[in-house]
Structure prediction request, 171 residues.
Amino acid sequence: MLQLINNTSFSADRAALVGPDGDQFWVVIVKATYLLNEDGFIDPHPQPEPVCLSPLYSGEPGKSSLLREGEMVFDHPGTDVTLLATAHAPYEIPVRELDVTVSVGPVTQTLRIFGDRIWQGDMFGLRMTDPEPFTTQPVTYERAYGGTNVLGQKDGRQEKEPRNPIGRRTL
Prediction:
């Protein structure tokens, strides 16, 4: 039996997997979990997450955020970076929107986080209200634009926003 002796502070797991041509491969996963401190520096997390062997969702699969893909795979072309975060307004002064940025190596991604808004109808049609002020806001797909349009569908069809089908309703 193949064994893995992990002498690191990181999580690790192993499996024998079958490739697309039927060949068997011994796959070893080493997973590092870090904690972003208030000063902007990262440290190894004191309780590293175990290797995720199957997809992990925040709630019901297909209707909630994917927290982790299954990490034990035959072919993985690179490194995954997963961000579980809450946006905090600077100095705890309420804001209506806030840009948050994460950078890992040469890759940088910026998200614009908005306070709660709703759709309102008036004589000009539908429009979104101004964002409500917030000091903290979870960064999740459920709170982002998207979802399912169920208004105005006389034949019972539902239109999903393909970029984020679990987000806030588009209408």
